Amino acid sequence: MKKLSTTSGTFAMNILQSEATTMPLRDDFPPSGSDYLGGESDGYEYRTVFGGSRLESTYEMVRQFLAEEGYEDVPLPKDAEELRLFRLPTRNKQILMFEDNGYVHNPIKILFPQDRRKRSTLILCIYNEADPQHLLKFHRILERVEAAKSE
User: Fold this and answer.
1) 20: DSSP letter
2) What share of the chain is helix, strand, coil (3-state, %, to 5)?
3) Which contacts (CB < 8 Å, 24+ apart) does range 36-39 have?
4) How far is residue 107's CA from residue 105's CA, in Å, rounded to a whole number?
5) Contact of 71 with 124, CB cutoff 8 Å
6) pTM for this prediction
7) CA dist., res. 146 & res. 79, Å (int)
8) Theoretical Cys-Cys bridge with 71: which of 49, 63, 66, 112, CB 3.0 to 4.6 Å?
9) Residues with Cβ within 8 Å of residue 21, at least 6 apart in sequence
10) Strand, coil or helix: what is 110?
11) Which of 23, 47, 20, 53 is nearest to 35 (CA)?
């Protein structure tokens, strides 16, 4: 067995300590304005885009990311074929503004982009469950209440 030098050993120890102190996104939601692993957070919603050569590989990337970030208990479609069943059949942009085009299960949304040419792209949205109005925001109840007030 090769013995690490003191410098290498210290470096390796720092990496291990760094990894040990990194909390999954579910336990330590990124604050507003932060850039976490290529995605953006407003403190309530974390949004990132995945793109692979095929939808199947993209969906596997999403599943792996969710498992690593503490969301392994959230029910997901079993595969990309089942995920496709959640795509809205319409191309009407007005309807797509008010409906989620993809799979939704609190606290995540796996959405298809509006541009149907991006067949192997998925948008992952994760919502901060610690927010006091999480359920009202996640299910867009507050948006509906505000829209009703303005009518």
Assistant:
1) H
2) 35, 20, 45
3) 37/65, 39/124
4) 6
5) no
6) 0.80
7) 37
8) 66
9) none
10) strand
11) 47
Which among 108, 100, 98, 87 has a CA at the least distance from the CA of 39?
Answer: 108
pLDDT in tens, 52-67: 999 999 999 999 999 9
4-19: pLDDT as tens digits: 333 333 333 333 433 4
Structure tokens at 52: 């692979």
The stretches of 87-133 forming alpha helices (DSSP H) are 93-98
Tokens of 88: 């809205």
**Residue 14 identity:** N
Strands 121-127 and 108-111: antiparallel
Q: How many angstroms separate the CA atoms of 44 and 138, rounded?
A: 10
